[in-house]
Amino acid sequence: MAMSMKKIGAIAVGGAMVASALATGAFAAEKVGDVDAFAADVVADGNANVDIVVGSNAAALDVVSAANIAAKIGSLMFTEGTVENGAATVTVSASAESDDVMLYNGTADNVSLPVTLVTSADKDYNTLFDSKITLTNYQSLGKLDTLVEVDDVDPSEWYSGDENNAAELVYAVVGAGKEDGKYDINDSDVAYISAVTNDTIESGYLALKPGMRIPFLGEEYVFVKADSDDDYVVMGKEVFDGVIKEGESYDLGNGYTVKVDSVLSPLSGSDDPKVNIKILKDGKTVAEKFDTTQIKMVYGDIAVVVNSAWENVGSDYGYAELVIVDNVVKADLGEEFIPDWELDLFNSNTASLDNIFEDDVSKSGLVASGLALKYIGDDEEDVESGDDFDIADYVTFELEDDDDETNALFNMDQAKEVSLAIGQTVNVLNAEIKLSEIDAEAKEAVVMTAPIAVLDSEASLDAADKGLILVGGPVVNELTAELADAGLVAIDNESPATLAVAAGAANGNDVLVVAGGDRAATEEAAEALIDML
User: Fold this and answer.
1) Structure confidence by residue, pLDDT tens digits, 466-492
2) Which of 207, 332, 410, 453 has its CA 20 to 30 A from that of 235?
3) Does the predicted model carry a pTM greater than 0.70?
């Protein structure tokens, strides 16, 4: 009885479900030709290297045998490889407390109010802050270990050979409430600051410049620029810092590359070379800038700062020194960065706490030494023992109850997720994390098509483009009959289970005949082949 292709496909699926059970035993078959070599080559580069042909007049048992062979070959189709690059997401958790100060001794306030309480990544930054900014009744609460300090803001030494610093600092101005033991925290009296300082810290603040590394809310960023026209800042995570030769690119993954397209000589000896820098997506330019250094360029999640460029001695080609970042943060100054917290520049060219915040990049006399988040929410009145105040979703200012006394301190209990490529190092919550390697099985979804048996009426020895497996003898399979007529295989009604290879018989490709003198012998031959695969 003839079967349609649709019916064969359905049987093939059913056969795939029982293939492992049918292929577990040891089965014997007569081998003719190099059957082992054929069996070893049914899958190449993870894909099927054969087609399976069943006779139009085949019995149902032959169709099932063909389906089982297809299922076994399908189970062999996979790819494997070595992880050469990759990334991992790591969660970093940390907690710490600053020193404390007694605000209320149980009967009366213990300090002069209002009082400015300060903590930072190192107590020396507290001292610097007090010496440069006039604080009301300054109280240093020492260091908060989980606040981040960057030991070298200019690792490429673009601006200085000194290893200058940047660090996080928070402060809160606490005023008197309606009665002793209760306190007010007002709008603009609490802030988070990330500032750049001289190497010796006490010597003072430095101007924040493009390419410098600064901490921001527990993570290290590269500062890209402060836009003087629209008053916004841009920063991102470093992915490359170094020199790229003219005509070469840096691959960021996901189809993105940064290319130093050309470096052109200056018209006069005193001018800087001009650099044509491009950002490409899948080989197509999506952003381009052609200018003298310093060049600052932002496209979506990617930013580039080109600090310098030069040509080789023979003027044959040029080089550009640059830093590339991703995970770009672009934020407006004078606007809420997070609810109730406004992003501003930290103006170190002032002695007044009221004037350290600035949202105008071009303001005369401004020395922007960092970034600040200023509290602009509602005034908090009559805060008392057991209460706390959240600072930028990052640090907590706490009034601690201690035997009727009230102590003030800062604490942190943070968890940050960071993504790293192999070999990359990041600083988060004052911890340095490096991804040295990934030791795991890497899996990738790959579309693979397992072979499904086709009818002999739809296949041809002359048109074959790969090896063939013919299921059934010459009585039921026309292609097997062609081989028998040509004397390439010898199978009759008395033949045992047989696996016979006809070398080069299918348009130069080998053919394996799986057959026997009856349908039971053909089934046994198929099971023997499955056992070999």
Assistant:
1) 999 999 999 999 999 999 999 999 998
2) 410
3) no
